[in-house]
Amino acid sequence: MADVSRRGALTLGALGLAGLIGGPVGFVVLFSGGGANAGSCDGGGASVDASGLPERVGDFAGEQLKNAALIMGAATSLKLPVAGQIIGVQAAIGESTLKVIDFGDGAGPDSRGLFQQRANGAWGSYTDRMDPTISATNFFKVLKGIEGWESLEPSRAINRVQRNQDPDHYTRFRAPALAIVQGLSGTAIEGGTCTDPGASVVGQLSGKWVHPLPGAQMTSGYGPRGMVGSIGGALANFHYGIDFSTPGQAGTVLAVTDMKIVIATDTDGGTGSGTHVKGQTLDGKLTIGMYHMASGSLRVKAGDTVSAGTPLGTEGSTGNVTGRHTHIEFFTGKFDDPWVPVNPTTDPLPILKEKGVL
User: Do residues 210 and 357 make contact, with C-beta atoms less than 8 angstroms apart?
Assistant: First the structure.
């Protein structure tokens, strides 16, 4: 059972559940052979045949695996990805070892069921809390209402729902949850995030932000400025990003936060971008472009999901530039290949300051 000094007056309505939507997966799903069912990045999670459950997965068997299957089914009904299924099973292991228990503990004597939900009106009736599918559904509704849950470290995401004292309490239940979801669905799973076939997950996703070019100085800000280089038109008098330059030798360009790479190329399509990378943040709020890297220096490919601080390439001077630097653009929204001024941009500087990068 969790350290349940918690489960206060959190209500489903308080988290704004009227327009719930799913999001990108927070773990990698590698599809195994033999026609195994698997959850997609944006669709529902892995399906489970309740009539053909394994006898045992690790230390879990019987009723525990049936309850895990019901948790996974509740996630699928809400169109949550495999990531959500894993988090649900992980939470229930940490709360009840996947058993519908009719007692609480010292910190939460009125806690009941798989998720140890309290009798405060937030989680329905006693019958609801003791029902595996209903209690799991209520857990997932709150999870879906937490902005950016997909990019949070799993135990921290669960903590946002359960409101327990120790946000890292559920970390030790991660491995068995992965094993159970894999065992019940026939889906091969590794830690990371959802990725495309042949792509990679680089680093440990954490939701952190880092400086995109350590040791560099900002040399040009966002907004109106005189024409630089040879490209005119809409690009002539407005700078749609910010520039960083490293004194001395070229620096290493880093992923500023966790993101899925959608473009990684030495071809700029005549835009003057040079060798560049574009990636979508895992919450879908920003698409980040990083330009003018040295030709042939890219260390990632389209489809990869990278953690904050992952090396992307080397600071360079390719494209329409007057010297070595890295140009960074923040597009507001999720785009596969955004360009200025076609897609909306925002000044990266306030965001980097708010994230503690600058």
Answer: yes
d(CA 12, CA 237): 48
Domain 217-354, CATH homologous superfamily name and number = Glucose Permease (Domain IIA) (2.70.70.10)
Q: Count CB-CB contacts under 10 A for residue 342.
A: 10
DSSP 179-227: HHHHHHHT-EEESS----TT--EES-----B--SSTT-EEEE-SEE---
pTM over 0.70: no
Domain locations in the chain? 13-194, 217-354
The token pair that represents 202 in the structure block: 């680089």
List, for residues 196-220, the tens digit of each pLDDT value: 445 567 777 778 999 999 999 999 9
Phi, psi dihedral angles at 96 (to 5 degrees): -145, 10
For 28-58, b/e burial (b = at least 16 CB within 10 A) is bbeeeeeeeebbebeebbbbbeeeebeeebe
d(CA 37, CA 2): 32
